Amino acid sequence: MKILSVESTCDETAVAVTENGRRVLSDQIFSQVNLHALYGGVVPELASRSHVEVISLLAERAVAEAGVRKEELDAVAVSYAPGLIGAVLVGVNFAKSAALALNVPLIPVHHLRGHIAANYLAFPELEPPFLCLVVSGGNTLLADVRDYTDLHVLGATRDDAAGECFDKTARVLGLGYPGGRPVDELSQGGDPTKYRLPVGNVADHPYDMSFSGLKTAVVNLVHTAEQRGEELDKPSLCASFAATVSASLVPRTIRAAKELGYNTVVAAGGVAANSRIRADLTQATKEAGLRLFFPPLHLCGDNAAMIGAQGYYEYLAGRRADSSLNAYARMEL
To answer: Which label site among 28, 75, 286, 305 has the fewest CB atoms less than 10 Å from its CB?
Structure first.
């Protein structure tokens, strides 16, 4: 089954063609990083306009690269929630039009389910059930993946997402946007024990997380150093910050997997590309005797192939949408 899939929830426009939820035939991505870097973050209106400008061309390229005729496409899948509402609407409306023109089913896909499904593209042997740590720019949660379309949230951040904190840390340190990669690169030469930063906990909810205190601590530390004229060890601060984020994510992940009785742990989302988190989770799962699956770096960020992968399983589960499909800024997993 060949699916044309669309992703436009934030600042990447992406269109892909996948087959049977496991094979990528093409994956076209247009990044808006240069557009938003000037502002230090995503400007929703600019993001929406950029999606409109490039989405049709990306679809043409995706079909051509896949080496299929449009008549050979069996369905259209689209990420319809959560995300920047204007941006999501562009993808949803394009997908509805494409499905109508091709006379094929339209499959609605939750963006975070797509991130989890990115692992299916990289690892043919991976099957539910498993415990998944989802860490992206706008979301951080632990998911009990009981089946391909039966997923339940065990815990999530109560405030800022881990990815948002990486961006805020990069901004206050003058490292630019997006912040994940520059913070990771700078941290390689730092001492992760030099700065003591808070790990957020939520009373009576062991799997819930909080990162607003960490973000505030970093901002206050930097501003205090500037006001006192003190030299800040930026590599060590980045290393300490990454270690603190990891200390919040990794132990909860291992605990949840053990309590559920799963022997498989999966990571997903853009922040899953961070080297400290990958190293700590690799070590922790090894010590616990658990299998670990990380998506390759090119599948960690937003892409349409992951939407096509999850779309295949949503289709098998009987999920369809019609022309009334709407976009949503927020939606539970």
So the answer is: 286
